[in-house]
Amino acid sequence: MGKDDGILVIRHIHVTYHLKAGEVHRETVERVHGMHADRCPVYKTLKSAIDITTEFVLEP
Prior knowledge:
The structure is a single chain. By secondary structure, the chain is an alpha+beta fold. Helices cover 27% and strands 30% of the residues. The chain has helices at 26-35, 41-46; strands at 12-20, 51-59. The longest helix is centred in the middle third of the chain and has 10 residues, at 26-35. The N and C termini lie far apart (49 Å).
């Protein structure tokens, strides 16, 4: 059967944050987004087993 014996295995998670904030806050959002993963216990727990990527979308 192969390495995973036919069992579904999660290898990648992509998260899109939809933030209600104006363009005036973009710089702050970018700064926080750039460092939040290293302070997230879920990310730190899973990062060695699952490729996790994130992005954000500013919504008015």
